[in-house]
Amino acid sequence: MILDDVRVLWLRDRALAALGLTDPAPFEELLDRGDGEEGRAILRFFDRGTEEGDDEGEAGATLLLLRAEWCRQDGEEAAGTGDTEEFAEEQQEEGPDECFPEQLTETASSVALEGSMTQKSKASPLQPTDNESVSGHVSALSSQSELGKLEQRFTTDDMEHTPQLQEQKVDKVCFYVALDEIPKEFVSNFTVYFLRDAKERVAEPSDLSEANEVLPKVIKFGVLTDDSLLMLKNAISQAFSPAVSFSQLQIEETSENTDSEKGNLPKTEKKEQLVENGNIKLEMPTVNLDREVTALATDPEVVEALESYAMTLQKLISIALEEQMKKVPEGNGPLAEIDLWRERNENLSALTEQTKLPEVQKVLEILQEAESQHTGDLQIVLSHLRKHHVEALDNVKFLSTLERHLKTLTYGTGFNVVLDTIPPLMNTLRMVWIVSRHYNKDERMVPLMERIAWEISERVYKAVDLHTLFKEDRAAAKKKLVDAKSTLEQWRKCYFAVRAQIEASGREEHWEFDRKRLFEKTDYMTSICQDLYDMLQVIEEFYNIIGPELKAVTGDPERVDDIMRAVNGLTSPMEELTFDPFSIENAHDWKLIVEEFKEEVSNHYSVNRGYI
After folding, report:
1. For residues 459 and 410, what is the distance between their CA atoms, to the nearest angstrom?
2. Same domain, 16 and 131
3. Are 368 and 255 in contact (CB under 8 A)?
4. 8 A C-beta contact, residue 57 and residue 49
5. What angle do the packed helices 25-32 and 37-47 form, to 10 degrees?
6. Residue 526 has what pLDDT?
7. Total domain count, the chain
8. What digits encode the pLDDT tens for the residues 38-69?
9. N or C: which end of the chain has fewer CB atoms below 10 A?
């Protein structure tokens, strides 16, 4: 019986707790449905990658979805009620959630794909337990507590952001399962996902206690909302599409012999090497390869010609890889990094595709049959090509999930857009950190985040121009500084919120990144924005005191005009700066400017105490 497998029991309890259910009958009905095929799908989720016949590298990840909905007792789906429709309308009208509210608990190493939602589901087959609408936040289960604690946690106020089902007398709950696909009907607020790396074996624990300790280390899970599930669908379909499965690439490796003809082939026609847009394009060898492989392998002239071709091929691929590795992003922003990987992927893809041509494959087969000593060296180079191509392809597909947020961050109008972009961007970075094979290391993630911090700083730098700031309407200038400061602080705030969730999950690699690289610039700019705001506040207070009323009271309008001119002059040093105040290298010079301003303000108060 499938339920004899402790892993299935663990999965059942996680799904029930996530949806606020206690009756295991609907899940058990799922296991028996379709002659047990649904239950076998769950077992395949646990065993994928370890089953007999599975290639070691097959399927970088395997995804299991469990969807719940109300069904009629006769098995038909329950019709939507008025309350459900009203609930759906309420979802549509909701605005974006606050970034990382205190109630949000990140309990598994789930992928909090979206920190806020700007769109909600237009229809829901289920009803929440209260009037609260389903939040866009992902709330996953804790990997550090017993099931009883989990269920208790899901009934507390922390469940404010977790969808739950109400048990009804008329209808019953039905579960549906999907393995390694995300059908359209599964894109709902009541789908629980389980994600694991197929290369990691999922051993069967002896009991539930051991399962609660062991399984969360290799399986990531959580409840997903419409938007985040759509995003996961995009990420998974891109990152783990069959086209990039490791097993297929291994097969390709055995036949990959890039048609690189840098020089001449002895006893063959001279080959022309072309470089177009960074892509190396080579013609194939012109040796007559119409005979059988065994016959060609015994022809000394053919073997000699093909060995020369293989050496040229090996050298050219090495040069191409070296050139690609030398390239760096053109620009300081994060989009430049995506562009670099996209270009590298295009170039290496073009080179790799040439290795798949029948002529090149046959060349390699002939040399292998002839037991040529050049075969091994060529295979090593082809292996390097495959490795770098897979890396570039993988990085492009994961970084593409960030691209929409990064474009908004770079080109969006106004600080409000940037403020709303940072939370989902940070959550997507976490997803990349969890699932990516290459951006799950400090040496990759830190430079990317550093570029994001630079882009945020650049937005503030362009918006806050000291040469014109004090000439603007003071209220507008103060609001600009408040928004700029909030944007810089949002970067730090959301980073540490996600970092805390990762630590609470107990399963993911922690974000122990170099804080100086990520926050030194933004923190310093935050302090500059505060200094500028304080200056504007002082000027405003002066103007609130000095004016026509003061002239009337003192009877000395000329004296009042002199004071106003002196107040206007307080900002002259800022307007005439010859250095960049937002550059931390000029911190000492800026400190002198601030001290000079404060001293001038103090002098004005002292000299004009009788008037002010």
Report:
1. 8
2. yes
3. no
4. no
5. 90
6. 97
7. 3
8. 888 898 888 877 555 454 444 467 888 888 88
9. N
Q: What is the dihedral of CA 267, 269, 273, 279, to 10 degrees?
A: -100
Residue type, 168: Q
Can you give the residue range of the structural domain that contains 543?
412-612
Measured CA to CA, the distance from residue 302 to residue 366 in angstroms comes to 9
Residues 79 and 47 in one domain: yes
- pLDDT tens column, 460-495: 999 999 888 988 998 999 999 999 999 999 999 999
Among 75-89, 217-231, 459-473, the least confident range: 75-89
Distance in angstroms (rounded) separating the CA atoms of residues 104 and 157: 10
CB 258 within 8 Å of CB 355: yes
Q: Are residues 456 and 539 in the same domain?
A: yes
User: What tokens were used for 369?
Assistant: 């049959």
Say how far apart CA 344 and CA 389 lie, in whole Å: 8
Asked whether residue 92 carries a pLDDT value surpassing 50, the answer given is no
Which of 240, 255, 290 terminates a domain? The answer is 240
Question: What are the E-state strand segments in 158-312?
Answer: 171-179, 191-196, 219-224, 273-276, 279-282
Whether residue 355 is found in the same domain as residue 500? no
Q: Which residue has the higher pLDDT, 72 or 417?
A: 417
Q: Which two tokens stand for residue 129?
A: 């337990």
For residues 365 and 472, membership in a common domain is answered with: no
Q: Which pLDDT score is estimated for 253?
A: 35
417 and 383 within one domain = no
The C-alpha angle 398, 402, 407, rounded to 5 degrees, equals 140
**Of 180, 210, 240, which residue is a domain's last?**
240
Taking the CA atoms of 276, 280, 281 and 286 in sequence, report the sign of the dihedral they define.
positive
**508, amino acid identity:** E
Q: 594-607, pLDDT tens digit by residue?
A: 999 998 888 877 76
In 125-183, alpha helices (H): 147-153
Q: How far is CA 495 from CA 269, 512, 519, 524, in A?
A: 60, 11, 10, 17
DSSP string, 397-410: HHHHHHHHHHHHHH
H/E segment holding residue 213:
helix 208-214
How far apart are alpha carbons 268 and 219 in whole angstroms?
56
Report which of 40, 117, 129, 124 is spatially closest to residue 88, judged by C-alpha positions. Answer: 124
Return the number of other C-beta atoms located less than 10 Å from residue 379's C-beta: 18
CB atoms within 10 A of CB 107: 26
